[in-house]
Amino acid sequence: MESNKKELDKSQKVFITGGAGFIGFHLSKSLLNKGCHVIGLDNLNDYYEVKLKMDRLKILRNHDNYKFYKDDLSDKERLNFIFSEERPDIVVNLGAQAGVRYSIDNPDAYMQSNVIGFYNILECCRKYPVEHLVFASSSSVYGANKKVPFSTEDMVDYPVSLYAATKKSNELMAHCYSKLYKIPATGLRFFTVYGPFGRPDMAYFKFAKKIMNGEPIQVYNNGDMMRDFTFIDDIVLGVENILSNPPAEMETGARYKVYNIGNNKPESLMYFIQTLEKCLGRKAEKQFLPMQPGDVYQTYADVTELMRDFDFKPSTSIEIGLAKFVEWFKEYYGL
C-alpha cells in the first residue's frame, strides 16, 4: 500500500507523559534514536519497582535531545508551567494508573491520574494548542463483550472495572474537547503489550519471576483465557506512524478517532505459559484458580482500520517476542 502519511518532523517537540513507563520508555527511545526532541513526564510512583523506571530513565537521559520532569498529571499548576515552558507540538498521554485488579482496591489513584490528570492534559492542549494529542485508551473498555474480534464500532457502555471506566471516560472527554476547542485527538486501545523492560505487574513478568524462583504461578479461570498479546516493537511502530497524522473531521465536527492497536491474533493463556517455560528453560508449578473480579475471558483486536489508515502490520510472534523478553529478563536480573 502506498502511504500518503506524513513522516515525523524531527524539529517538532513530542511531550510523552508516563515517560518512564513501559510504552513511554520504548516510544521515547525510538523517537530519540531518530533524532526527535522528546520531553518526558512521570511521577515515578511505586505501583511497581521504581528501580525499573529509573533504569529506563537512565537510558533516555543519555540523549541530548531529552528533557525529563518528575511531576504528577494531577498537578495542574506544574502541567501548565511545563506546557508554557516547552510548547510541545505533539502530546502523547501514556501517563495513567494502570492495572485492572489494582483498581478494585485503590479507586482513588485511578480518579486522580486517569480522570483529573487527563482533564489537566486536555486543558493544557486547549491553552497551548498542539498539532495532535494521542492518548492511551485500553482494550479493557470492551468489558465482557462476547462478539469477537473487538471492533471500535462495538458498544462499550458496560465496563467491568473502574480502570476500564476511566479509559472510556478519557475517550468521551477527548471527543468533547476536540469538538469544542478543535484539538485533533487520537485514542489508542492497547491490547496486552509485552516485551523487554515491561511492567512487573503483568502476568508474563510475574510468571517469569516465579518460575525462576521455583514458586507456583497463579493461573486464573483454570487457564481457559485468550489474550491478544502484542509485542512492544509492533506497538511503537504503530504509534509513531500516527503521531504526525491527526484525524480528519468527523460528522460530529470533532477531529477525533479511536483505533485498536493489537496483534489481531489471540493466543491461549496455556500456550503462552508453555512458550514462556520453553524460553526460560524451566517448568512452572501451576496453581489453577477461578476467574478474578474485573477480568475478562478474551481480548481480540480488530485492527482493520489501523491497517487501512497506517499500513499497520504486527509481525512479532509470541515465540520471538517472549524469547526477546526472556533474554532481557535474565540479563537484567543477572540470572
UniProtKB/TrEMBL annotation:
Transmembrane segments: none annotated. Residues 15-323 form the NAD(P)-binding domain. Pfam families: GDP_Man_Dehyd (PF16363). Keywords: NAD. It comes from the Bacteria. InterPro entries: NAD(P)-bd_dom (IPR016040), NAD(P)-bd_dom_sf (IPR036291). This is NAD-dependent epimerase. It comes from Diplocloster modestus. The lineage of its organism: Bacteria, Bacillati, Bacillota, Clostridia, Lachnospirales.
